[in-house]
Specification:
mainly alpha, Growth Hormone, Chain: A, globular, 17 helices, 2 domains, 83% helix, 401 residues
């Protein structure tokens, strides 16, 4: 009974991993916040800041395609340790440059680009690594805890960065990120891990490995359907957040503090959603929870469409945040359970691309449409389009189950 209550936390290796994961991601968010603040103050240009984010992010997204090859060909524990050691280098050099006031826009771009490349391998690698630390029946709960850890770090990191920048020194943010990798790096040495990769994977050429993977995707149509579902949900559902400043100012007549409060509602909702996903046990099937995630999101968006009330908007943000962490851990778990271990790296790389790549594309598209379509009409169109399209996709999943 105790084991059922604790779920994946009853496994020592997973507990070590999730603690280290939380610490490292908190450090990453501290650095990201400080870096964006530093870049803006260095150039005093939002255009340069946008250019910086684009140049340092998109190469990492494309690198994610190659990440699956490394993840499926090498011992995953050793690879994770190597990536974390390499990840120590950019924040250390940033700290040294900023401490001695030698930072330049170009140097920061180069160092941030290396961080992005290492992260593009690290993200799918951590997803796959979790699947080998817990029994498959606890995988969705383990991924829900990871989502809770990630979103907690996403809320805590910027707050800590603001306090450090205001009361101490901005260079300390980069030193903290450097130090934040060390606990997980140390913990991995104590994780009792045996590689589950079969020998034949390493003996294949890279071309044959991709051909085998392509053949697997053609046979396992459910994987392709799930990836389409992730892409459409990410493109539309997460992108409505980009309209929040316009909604706050034009519809609510609010201020920057109102915008910040509404934004926090997404984070709080995401934390609540991760907890509900963890504690759901066998109350709902995975497909039922995916439907629930879409319903939560749709109700949140409809609250924005049919109300001009701040409390309703805040509830809408909570529901939207909850939908995210009811969706991604479940669909991630479904993907990994449908995929043999020797192919999970490639599948998780596609998952990462669908997650990381579609979000900026969706945000750019919807922000442009908001210039020519009344914002509430645009939200209604997006809401109806996504709920109808993805429920049809989910229906095809049910037929294949």
């Amino acid at each position: 009974m105790k084991g059922e209550i604790l779920g994946p936390l009853q496994y020592r290796d997973f507990t070590l991993f999730i603690i280290g994961h939380f610490i490292s991601f908190t450090g990453s968010w501290i650095q990201t916040t400080a870096l964006h603040w530093l870049i803006y103050n260095l150039r005093h240009s939002t255009v340069d800041l946008g250019f910086f984010v684009f140049v340092t992010s998109f190469p990492g997204i494309f690198m994610t395609l190659l990440a699956g090859i490394f993840i499926d060909r090498f011992n995953r524990k050793n690879l994770m340790q190597l990536i974390m050691i390499l990840s120590l280098i950019p924040p250390l050099f940033m700290f040294i440059l900023i401490h001695f006031n030698k930072q330049t826009f170009g140097l920061l771009i180069i160092l941030a680009l290396f961080s992005s490349i290492f992260s593009s391998i690290d993200m799918p690698l951590r997803q796959v690594f979790i699947s080998e630390l817990v029994p498959i029946k606890f995988l969705t709960q383990a991924l829900s805890l990871q989502a809770f850890s990630f979103n907690s770090a996403r809320m805590l990191g910027p707050i800590m960065a603001g306090l450090i920048i205001s009361h101490i020194s901005i260079d300390l943010c980069f030193l903290i990120n450097f130090l934040s990798f060390l606990p997980l790096l140390i913990f991995t040495y104590f994780i009792r891990y045996k590689s589950s990769l079969v020998k034949k994977t390493k003996e294949l050429s890279i071309i044959n490995e991709f051909l085998n993977f392509w053949h697997f995707l053609k046979i396992k149509r459910k994987i392709s359907i799930l990836l389409i579902l992730i892409s459409t949900f990410t493109f539309f559902a997460t992108s409505v957040i980009i309209l929040l400043p316009m909604l706050t100012l034009k519809i609510l007549g609010g201020s920057a503090s109102d915008f910040a409060l509404l934004s926090s509602g997404v984070g709080i909702g995401a934390l609540a959603g991760a907890l509900t996903s963890f504690f759901r046990r066998e109350l709902f099937s995975d497909l039922s929870q995916l439907v629930m995630a879409h319903v939560l999101w749709f109700l949140g968006v409809m609250g924005l469409v049919f109300s001009n009330s701040f409390p309703i908007y805040y509830i809408g943000m909570l529901l939207i945040g909850m939908s995210f962490t009811n969706f991604y851990p479940v669909v991630n778990g479904l993907l990994q359970r449908e995929t043999p271990s020797e192919l999970r790296g490639k599948v998780m790389s596609l998952f990462s691309i669908a997650f990381l790549g579609m979000a900026p594309l969706g945000q750019t598209t919807i922000s442009l449409l908001a210039e020519v379509i009344v914002v509430k009409d645009l939200l209604l169109i997006i809401g109806l389009f996504l709920i109808i399209m993805n429920l049809l996709i989910l229906r095809s999943l049910v037929q294949r189950s």
